[in-house]
User: Fold these one by one.
Assistant:
Number 1:
Amino acid sequence: MPTTPVSVITGFLGSGKTTLLSRLLRHPDMARTAVVINEFGAVGLDHMLVEASDENIVQLNSGCLCCTIRGDLVLTLLDLLERRRRGDVTAFDRIVIETTGLADPAPILQALMTDNALAQAIRVEGVVTTVDAVNGAATLDQYQESVKQAAVADQIIITKTDLVDTDSGDIRDRLAELNPMAPLLQAVQGDIAPNQLFNAGTYDLSAKSDEVRAWLNTNLPVHDHAHDVNRHSDGIRAHTVIRSEPIHAVALTLFLEILAEHCGADLLRLKGLVKLIESPDQPAVIHGVQNVFSPPVWLDRWPDESRDSKLVFITNDLPGVWFEDLLDALNTEVAETVARQENNKALA
Amino acid sequence: MSENSNWGEQLYALLTGALSVWRLNGRVVRDAEKSACCIIQTKIAEVAVERITNDGDTPYWDVALLDPDTTVPPLPYAGLQGMLRAVRDLLDQDPISARLVIGSQAGE
């Protein structure tokens, strides 16, 4: 059975998250969407209710389902999926989760990525974060939650741009520095086409080449050596490693294990395409949130002419050059081991 | 450049960065006499890490606590992963450690 895509909408208090969601729920393209929220009242759905299925699920006249979280998100989602299976609720093709304004999206993503029962039924499509053009900069200065929401986003929506005199270039520059991976979109009064947010296929790693490129979204030129784009913003750093030489699969595995063990929660996101010695024509797609990684996926081919490995790290104040040094050292160690074994075989 | 010289440079860079990742104050110095040996100096301890390549066929890492009162000899580690963990355990009295989780975990 095909998996149901799940997107997460997050954003600080007052950033326009709920306005965005309310507007989206009225869009015809959002029919067959189940929205999971903390409380109905906050989204102002009263005039849209058609029928209350029970105390925590309502059907909207747009065809959407709206479900409140019953304590535990994973259990809520499993319950919703089971109700769909039994036919107790209108069928839906997608799920959108709205977090609270103070949420750290990383544990939410990790829960979605690691629950065994959910893994059979869903695929995580991505994180959409709203940032307010009026107060966003001050919010980023004051609240680390806001910084993290932007840092782990797959897409960032700048809201309330109609309320600022400038072209919101400053907040755009700051967000681009904080998270070079996330495209910056704009929405006034929540007005944005749903397919800009929810059909990006951001986590559908078997997607087409242009979607894979968009997912990685580094816009970096190709180099034969590591390209240091270490940036500093609010303690968050972005770093990209590019390698033209292929990497041993064992070295990559050890690399991820060491990152998880030693960087832990400070490694906010890692995305990458990796050229492996064992399969140089089929790049491995790597995606992780802190110490939790999706199982690697191998593409049938490279998405474009570049055959370089690209790994993009977003971290909480970690030295980006260390990732390069670690990867190179591991690859050297594994290469030496392999060479020694082959030499021993030849002598035997 | 000999293999050990290369390792000396790589080891120095790796351990210097590791101190920053672990949020420890200290410094790394290269051993003047051994090309593939570095000494990490922090307030907690001094630790020597050396790549041993001439003791049998398989190279390994020696990790030694530089404490005149210690009776623990240098301990060998086959790979960088074990070496880094051992160094951290000697330098950081309260390390925060996580483990790699890949995909869905049954029963968790």
Number 2:
Amino acid sequence: MSVPDVFRRSIPALFGLVALVLAPTLAAAQHLIVPMDDEQTNALKAYGLTFNALRDGNKAEWLLNYRGGSFLLPDDAELRRRATLDGVKVIPITNADLAALRTEIAGANMDAVSLERAPKMAIYKPLKSPPWDDAVTLALKYAGIEFASVYDEEVMNGDLSKYDWLHLHHEDFTGQLNKLYLGFRDAPWFIDQRESALATARKLGMPNVPALKKAVAEKMRQFVERGGFLFAMCGATETLALAIAAHQTDIAGSFADNTPIDENADQKLDWERSFAFRGVHLEPSAFVNSMSDIDGHQVNVPGRRQPLGQFSLFQFSAKFDPVASMLVQNHRTVIADFYGVTTSFSRATIKQGVTILAQEEGAPWTKYIHGDYGKGSWTFLGGHDPEDPQHNIGAAPTDLALHPMSPGYRLILNNVLFPAAKKKPLKT
Amino acid sequence: MRSPRDVRGAGGKNRGRLRAGFPWLTLRGSSAAFAVLCLLAPSATRAQAGNTADVALHRALELEGSNKCREAIPLYRQAAQVPDPTGAVLGLERCYHMIGRPDSLLPLLDTLFVRKPADPTLRVIQLRTLSTVRDDRGLVQAFEQWVGLDPREPAPYREYARILLDMGRALAADSVLKTAVEALGSSRELSAEFAQMQAALGLWVPAARSWREAGMHLPYLEQAAVFSLFAAPVALRDSVRAVMREPPISLGARRILAGLEVRWLAPREGWAALSALPPSDTVIRVWTEFAAEAEQAEAWLTARDAYAQAFHARPADRGLAVRAATAAMSGGDPASAVELLTTLSGLADSALASTVTLLRVRALGLLGRAAEAESLVTVSGEVLDDATRRQAHRALAWAWIREGDLARARQSLAIAGGDTEEGERVSAWIALYEGDLKTARAGLRRTDESSNDVVTAMALLSRTRAESARDVGEAFLALARGDTARAATLFGAAAQSVPDAAPFLLGTSARLHLAANDTASSISLWQLILSAHADAPEAAESDLEWARVLRRRGDTAGAIERLEHLILTYSESALVPQARRELELSRGSIPPVGLASGRSVIAAGAPPAFKNTGTRSQLPNPAISGRIISPHVCT
């Protein structure tokens, strides 16, 4: 028998020997499934667990449409510890279990998306304001996800390039301070806000607040165009769009910039630049607390206010439309609606090509929309706080410990996590 | 009804005689009878119609009560054909609303307005219906029609403003009320509506002024004022208080302030607002009512003060002194109870005398003046009935226990009749204090009390199989005597003699040290429990309480360490949810308790949002100037 023959014959035995040595190790190699269906005890903190696992250099997977959009994490003592502390249910599985799971995923409208790197998060808000004013910062604080705050000066200094993901909430990018001037011009808090904005405008060489906010909006547009992810809620959705479209048109009332609104503002707005909207009609009256007809509910206009209903999440192909699928992962399909300065988006004003993620059945508005812009993408969710539908003045801020499985807050956190996904989306 | 012919035919004999003497009378009598009948006929018709309408109304109410609104509606409509159709129209309003056709009432109302154009109830129903169907234009027209009937009548403005406020249209209500002031010349008749509108707009100080004014003329609105102003933010409450306290002193304003303070969890401040009022029959009644409200809120000592002051102003009403003393006892101040009750002597009413004696015995017992209490029971023997005498002796037994004299306690109990259920219970306690755990275990098992002491005693007795432990008895006796510090030490020491309940005794000792603000001793005990008794249920509690002490000291990192230890080590403990909450608060993951909303700009379903700060918008009081700055044109 030649040496090569001996070697060939001993290969199976060698393999057997190697397998025998490695077998205990292989059998012990485990993973953790973080279920996101009704078996989960704290879905919101589960996002934090996954996000921080990525931040610490672990790999993770998002199992789209599998048990409410579960996560797959390595079985690590530190992750188990955090899960126990946070009350997040995790289920250890073996490789064999995982293999079976992957087979199940392959044969259904499910997919496994690798999550590579925790995105760097920035929240646009006045630096002194507490985190309880904004549903997104509430969610991030609760889930234990770190974020940086940026405001006008930081944006104008180009700091957005340091971040992957930007959130906006109830800022008025038209510079009209949400049209509260005529009702509250003497109120000390309003004077503070206005003076502070004016001071920043002057410092940055702008003549007034509308000009400042338009410039900030333009920076944000460029941020997305260059590959950033933007998530906006509440009034920021509408006013950002108006500010971007009005880059050469005066749409601010004279109380804001001492000049009247352009008479033909509607016709002059440049919707080509806008992320999501077109053909919008501005609300020119300073006495009407509405910006435009983008908002379907018009909550602060007594004669126009629409009642709240429920909205339904659309289902997408996990394999062919993973981005949209990620954004709608939830253990509920129908969610109770909630008001905001901008509550919803009229269908008539939405551009072609925008992906509608959720809507109220039979209503002329949508609730949750997404699209690409340049190299980046944006998502808009109408409303202020999913667990505070009416948001009365003076009410205590939402305590998310009381809503650990909030389906509305899951939509927010879907947006936080999806920029971590590796795969480039393939649209249907 | 009888016809004229029938009348002529009736009473033939008499007619004959009459005809003979008075032929013209007969004819006239017939005609007169006929005329009377004709006069009576419409009334009879009306009466019959009214009876029919009443029947229809009652039947309709029955059907509505049985949820048969569709069947009730025709009957209500029938019942509405009477001079006063109010009941029927209100029924129609309810029924049409139930079947989802509120607008069906409007044509009927238009018909009724022909004969009752200024009926305020019908007008209000019309406004309500138009607001239900969201016919804003119709609402304005209906209001204008009503006002047009009498521009100096406040009712249309009042009712329309109320409806706008109910719809959440406070700014529109503001415009209406502004018009009313111009038309009526003053806002006095509408001060309540102004107040509600201002509160709805978050103009708390002007609202307080308006409610103060309304309270002067309409005392029944005081509760409405309290309900309206209760939501004022914390930062503005001092301003609201200042308005209510302004001179001249107004009873209505002070009552509103007192009601607010109770709801703002400051009943003592509420009493301060009322106690300064000069006494009168009305004021004494107000004091007594406030005292009852304070009792409801378990502000016992405030209630005591209010009853006591009422009693001093009206010494003939001895019942007030008894209520004051009872409140004092509930508030843990037996000394003031004794002081109050001592002023009551020579009571003619034997029932009252029994009550007073029993209360005094209990109060003296709580003060550790058992001998005095015994003397009182002896002296009052004739006044007390049997049942009260037994109660008094049982109270005396407790008094001797608090003095530490268990022998005399047994004697008193024997006189009280220790074979009753209550007597057996006291006997079981005495056994516990003597260290006889076996007897105590048997006796206390039957109790349905739920005080802390009972729970502690029963928890211990179920934890250990020991039948006697003198030092455990001494520890419980120290607790009964109110000597918390000594009890804490004795419980800790007793752990050595009852090893199977050692963690429990150490935990109890730690709790008592904490109550006495001796956190150092508490922490030592918790450390001992965690190291020597890590498997005991008290271990998780030790971690939690230790974390809380650290948090209160500002040692957040230390608190987090303890809480994490608890959650990770005792993951099945019932205390884990509390520990997680404390962990989230320590980490700042959730808003701190009691935080008011900050900068939020959204005002969904309400006027535009604003931030609550110390000074609100400086809008003038319309009652003073008649001008309101209304940023929105709504009507």
